[in-house]
């Protein structure tokens, strides 16, 4: 057994579940980076940890293995993971409503 990734929970410690999120935009550059950083900060404020992977629309496959896809663009196709199109993580307008939706989706994915 490989024990390099094993650690024991300390008494009273809360272990947060990690989520996997893809952030997708047309080019996979500046826009998605801003969305990714905002999402990480805002999720952490809500007690959630996430691995946030930045990619572009042409690289995301139909067999994605993630809990959520965040995007600033329209995505065509059917994905196994829920897709949330948001501009609020860029503009700040409507951010609370979008974060409530994102948190609900993530919590539902691990239920």
Plain-language structure description:
- The protein has 111 residues and is of the alpha/beta class.
- It has one domain (18-109): Rossmann fold (3-Layer(aba) Sandwich).
- 32% of the residues lie in helices and 21% in strands.
- The chain has helices spanning 30-45, 88-91, 95-109, and strands at residues 18-25, 49-56, 68-71, 83-85.
- It has a 4-stranded parallel sheet with strand order 2-1-3-4, covered by helices on one side.
- Strand 1, helix 1 and strand 2 form a beta-alpha-beta unit.
- The protein is globular.
Distance between the termini: 28 Å
Q: Report the order of strands and helices.
A: EHEEEHH
- What is the CATH H-level superfamily? Response regulator
Largest sheet: 4 strands, parallel
Q: In DSSP terms, counting alpha (H) and pi (I) runs of 4 or more, how many helices?
A: 3
CATH classification class: Alpha Beta
| Parts with pLDDT < 50 across at least 5 consecutive residues | 1-5
CATH architecture: 3-Layer(aba) Sandwich
Mean pLDDT level: 82
How would you summarize this macromolecular structure in one to three sentences?
The chain has 111 residues and is of the alpha/beta class.
Layout of secondary structure:
Blueprint: E1 18-25, H1 30-45, E2 49-56, E3 68-71, E4 83-85, H2 88-91, H3 95-109
Parallel strand pairs: 1-2, 1-3, 3-4
């Amino acid at each position: 057994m490989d024990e390099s990734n094993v650690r024991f929970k300390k008494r009273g410690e809360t272990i947060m579940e990690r989520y996997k999120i893809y952030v997708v935009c047309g080019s996979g550059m500046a826009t998605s980076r801003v969305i990714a950083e905002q999402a990480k900060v805002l999720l952490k404020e809500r007690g959630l940890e996430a691995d946030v992977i930045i990619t572009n629309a042409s690289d995301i496959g139909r067999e994605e293995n993630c809990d959520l896809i965040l995007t600033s663009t329209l995505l065509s196709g059917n994905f196994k993971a829920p897709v949330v199109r948001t501009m609020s993580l860029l503009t700040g307008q409507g951010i609370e409503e979008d974060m409530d939706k994102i948190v609900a989706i993530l919590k539902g994915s691990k239920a």
